[in-house]
Amino acid sequence: MIEVDARGLSCPEPVIMAKKALKKSPDGIDIHVDNVASKENVSRYLEAMGCKVSLNEGIGEWLISGRK
Amino acid sequence: MISSFKEKRNLAITGALIGVVAIVLMVLGNPGNMGFCIACFIRDIAGSLSLHNTAIVQYMRPEIIGIVLGAFIISVIKGEFKPRAGSAPIMRFVLGFFMMVGALVFLGCPLRMVLRLAAGDMNAFIGLLGFITGIAIGSFFLNNGFSLGRAHDVDRIEGAVFPFINIVLLFILLFFPSLLKFSESGPGSMHAPIVISLLVALIVGMAAQRTRLCMAGGIRDIFLIKDFTLITGFVFIFIAALISNIAIGNFHLGFADQPVAHDKHLWNFLSMALVGLSAAMLGGCPLRQLILAGEGNSDSAVTVLGMLIGAAFSHNAGAASSAGTGPAMIGKVSVVVGLVFCLALAAVITRKRSRQ
Lengths: 68, 356
Hints:
The complex is a heterodimer of chains A (68) and B (356). With 68 residues, chain A is of the alpha+beta class. Chain A is built from two helices and four strands. Chain A has a single domain, classed as Translation Initiation Factor IF3 (2-Layer Sandwich). Helix content of chain A is 37%, strand content 32%. In chain A, helix 1 (13-24) runs parallel beside helix 2. Chain A is globular. Chain B is mainly alpha-helical and 356 residues long. Chain B has one domain. Chain B contains 14 helices and two strands, in the order αααβαααβαααααααα. In chain B, strands 1-2 form a two-stranded antiparallel ribbon. The longest helix of chain B is centred in the last third of the chain and has 27 residues, at 329-355. At the A-B interface, helix 1 and helix 2 of A face helix 1, strand 2 and helix 9 of B.
């Protein structure tokens, strides 16, 4: 399982990081983001890649878990 | 999957809204095929603030103010007002500067490019090819590790400064217009009534904030992740504007004699390639930068200031194209310098990041 920190980054970088991480770890990834646009984009991307997506909301940030 | 459909639907509605109101604003007085050109209108604001002295393009455009304030208001309401800063501000300033230089050689931002295309202006199609090329190059760098670095949270007051500046500009426009310059002829003199422009822009700013609409992002996402969500907005602006134009008899297919345009193909292509590349590096088109600035993003606010100064430079130095005749030598040189700068910056940063 790879954990990615995409906090402080805005589109499209978190999605690219998710894409690269998913290549290395095809079973699933955890990715931290801290803005809503990135949360939506990364979730949408992971869903499109066939992952089950779950969200953990923190204060001003989210942990997105994608599992195949 | 349902959420993805909803996003596309909202983007389609927002796109259609922008396409229609752009034409309505034009009918109500805005310049030809310029219902909502972010670059042209920031350029007019630069003129209105005496940052350049081109007498025909000076007006305090309420559309820009309204978009920023619309994004500000809705982001506060929705809890998405998130002041942040610190992601390469000066690089962003320079990229914003060149994004504007490119847009003013082409004569329009990506939004106006679509509006021109929807009015049958085929020069905009050449521009679109350049725009796509620029975004493709930018996407290549992004895919290989290009990044302008992380931003961090800052005080809410910092994030509120840019929206506040726009409130002040609106206040001056409404109550002390003598402090500003206004064109007596040319595109700057053509405008819809202030209240209508402002209200429409507030709605557009809100809708664009909710949907993350971006003219560059749609094409970029196709290159990067084969995602067709954001492009929906782009497509629906085109369709709505096309139908509206045909309805009011404003559709004239061809290259020649298009309103506020020129038919120098090479420079239409290269200038929009510069806009596409810089927008991809910045993470968003001129419209998106305004929205992000309204959400409290100081890096985007700095980008907008870069665009403002880029507009002032373009007109003071004569780099902006003239309608009909196209760019002067200084305009061509500026576009080439911009492209070389962006490519070099992207290459250096990508190389550095890929080694880490």
